Amino acid sequence: MIGRLTGILLEKQPPQLLLDVNGVGYEVEAPMTTFYKLPEVDQKLRLFTHLVVREDAQLLYGFYTEEERRLFRTLIKVNGVGAKMALTILSGIEAQDFANCIHDNDTARLIKLPGIGKKTAERLIVEMRDKLDDWEVKLTVSGAFSTPMASSAESDAISALVSLGFKPQEASKSISQLNIEGLSSEEIIRLALKNSVQK
Description:
Blueprint: E1 4-13, E2 16-21, E3 24-29, H1 32-35, E4 44-53, E5 58-63, H2 66-75, H3 83-92, H4 95-103, H5 107-111, H6 118-128, H7 135-142, H8 148-163, H9 168-176, H10 185-198
Antiparallel strand pairs: 1-2, 1-4, 2-3, 4-5
Helix pairs in contact: 2-3, 7-8, 8-9, 8-10
């Protein structure tokens, strides 16, 4: 299994890019969320990858973050969702927003993604809810979609709320509704608890 590639970006034509790794050119398919973060051609690039071996082809999928790859791998395990649809989903919505849609049962937003009908949206929510239980928290802790300083205080606050009896997604959602810029973890916890009592 090829899990990661580091090389020079030779070409980028969505949804495919060409990566030169020590003289070997790897054709990699990637979601648009990865394309938005790519460097200029002839620059160094590291991608997290997932290899799919079929009877008629070997396909390599690349992702800018480990979280994107993890979500892709979770998506392709859902009945009726193949690699192509998983790429389409990841191209149309940020990983964090997708996790929020699953936790909030937001079929309306999922249906807006290309190729996703009502039945598929409902199946995604049912089959992925348990698989993404801790994913949202881990994503925040990793700092992939937030600044390192914010993620440290934010993740400490989420952990504290979970230990106080909140479900992971409830803790994360509660904090996401607050303006926490520049606050310490203690201040975030206090605000989140105050907010939950007022509801």
